[in-house]
């Protein structure tokens, strides 16, 4: 859940944040790579559909679903320009049954065999990594001010849960 909140904290849409969270849950060793992706500013991506799909300046967390859609709709090849492989890319690809291959400085994604991910029951997370995730997740919190309360935030006095 903290991975999902951290992704939402930097502005990743809910569906994509859920995919990232599932991939990290299935492959906890990808957490370090996730933290690097979270730290990168969101930038405008360049999709080229003229011959398959070529992508420049990808924000992996936000744009990987486009790669998945292109592969599943038989738009091949899918090439992510100037992107080296990392554990998060491999985990997200595996979640959707996609194979990842390096081609020079690019990554090529291809339809592979769909595998059901096996989720770890528990994983030890480094305290520093947990703190970083919490800081990104905190970006989703509403500030505790009178103005935010007037805008509807908080439980108020009528909450009787």
Q: In a nutshell, what does this entry contain?
A:
With 161 residues, the chain is of the alpha+beta class.
Provide key terms for this protein.
161 residues; single chain; 5-stranded mixed sheet; alpha+beta
Note the topology.
Layout: H1 2-9, H2 14-26, H3 31-39, E1 46-48, E2 53-56, H4 60-72, E3 78-80, H5 87-95, E4 98-103, E5 106-111, H6 127-137, H7 146-150
Parallel strand pairs: 2-3
Antiparallel strand pairs: 1-2, 3-5, 4-5
Helix pairs in contact: 1-2, 1-6, 2-4, 2-5, 3-6
Structural overview:
This protein is α+β, with helices and mostly antiparallel strands. It has one domain. The chain contains seven helices and five strands, in the order H-H-H-E-E-H-E-H-E-E-H-H. It has helices at residues 2-9, 14-26, 31-39, 60-72, 87-95, 127-137, 146-150, and strands at residues 46-48, 53-56, 78-80, 98-103, 106-111. A five-stranded mixed β-sheet has the order 1-2-3-5-4, with helices on one face. Helix 1 (2-9) packs across helix 6 (127-137) and helix 3 packs across helix 6.
Strand content: 5-15%
The total number of structural domains is: 1
Question: How does the overall form come out from the CA principal axes?
Answer: globular
Mean pLDDT rating: 84
Gyration radius (Cα, Å) is 18 Å
Following the backbone from N to C, one meets helices and strands in this order, namely: HHHEEHEHEEHH
Poorly predicted runs of 5 or more residues: none
Largest sheet descriptor = 5 strands, mixed
Helix/sheet category: alpha+beta
The strand line-up of the biggest sheet is 1-2-3-5-4
Distance between the termini: 23 Å
Helix share bin: 40-55%
Number of E strands: 5
Q: Total number of helical segments?
A: 7
């Amino acid at each position: 859940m903290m991975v999902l909140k951290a992704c939402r904290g930097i502005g990743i849409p809910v569906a994509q944040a859920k995919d990232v969270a599932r991939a990290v849950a299935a492959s906890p060793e990808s957490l370090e790579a996730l933290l690097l992706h979270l730290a990168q500013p969101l930038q405008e991506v360049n999709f080229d559909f003229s011959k398959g799909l070529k992508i420049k300046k990808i924000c992996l967390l936000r744009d990987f679903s486009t790669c998945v859609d292109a592969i599943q709709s038989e738009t091949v090849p899918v090439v992510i320009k100037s992107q080296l492989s990392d554990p998060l890319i491999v985990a997200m690809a595996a979640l959707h049954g996609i194979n990842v291959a390096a081609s020079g400085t690019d990554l090529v994604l291809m339809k592979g065999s769909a595998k059901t991910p096996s989720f770890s029951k528990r994983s030890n997370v480094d305290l520093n990594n947990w703190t970083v995730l919490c800081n990104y997740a905190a970006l989703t919190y509403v500030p505790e001010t009178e103005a935010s309360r007037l805008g509807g935030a908080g439980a108020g006095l009528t909450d009787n849960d």
